[in-house]
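Field: sequence (string)
Field: structure_tokens (string)

Example rows 1 and 2, in order.
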Amino acid sequence: MDSERPLPPPKTGRGEATRRKILDAARREIGAKGFSEASISAITAEAGVGQGTFYLYFRSKEEVMRELVGDMGRMLRRQLTEAIEGASDRIDAERRGLLAYLQFARRMPAIYRLVEESQFVDPAIYRQYYTDFARSYRKALVAAARKGEVAPGDPEVRAWALMGMAVFLGQRYGVIDTRTPLGPVVDEAVGLIAGGIAPRAQPRGTKPTMARARPA
């Protein structure tokens, strides 16, 4: 693994645009082929730049991978922050945030391959991707508990549990299945968050029912 420091950022708008073209091309190539199979020559061809241009902005393919994972994390956190703005309470924020996450996964399914492969390229960036999410999630849960919007509990455990739910729902309904309407999926997940899976008291003579999201 290349342990050298990243090259300094471009000083001009044109340079930044070229660097972005290379990153976008790398995201498509690595997302489609995987890190090992995506070559620098294929990335530069996809970006429409010469192979030598690549090394003006990045020292190696490993550096590109690290930048992509960090970039995807920042982009996703920004979109989730925008999605939950104006939420009436924490449960509403969970609903809005989960829907935005699943929509993001459908638009950019490469995020799964990039993040999962990064643990073999640079375990530190893989850990940072999730710990950055968990840190902000934990703060939000602590604030919600102080307002009485959620029951008291361990915010660290809850943050990672809720993240795990989102990640695997994204795999199922963002990557594997892109046809099922997301509304019922989010409703079911938020019902689980808000009420758990313990049986609830029901009127005598009724039978428990289990809702299930169905493909379109």
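Row 2 begins here:
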Amino acid sequence: MKALKAIFHQNKKKITAYNYLRYCSIYEFFINWQVKNMTSEDAAINAAEKVYDKGVYCSRTIRKWAKNWIETGIVSKLLQGCYQKTKSFIDDEDIITVNLF
């Protein structure tokens, strides 16, 4: 909890808005779960509604982030959009070698 508070008090320009909202939702989850004695499902739904104005799917994601926070002390890096979805003709090795020589 102290580490999450430290993230909120750091320079906001060093953290993206998406990551800030992830940390906010995890912090809200822990407050609901530990301080207000809610079940983990109810705490996650409450955090999803408060931070994202979303429902069950987002609450599952918040529980995954919280589990990862408990196990490792960090929130896993977002890998959305990191992989090329289609094979490009320009990226073909044979085409590159033919055009370079």
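free_text_note (row 2): DSSP finds five helices and no strands in the chain.
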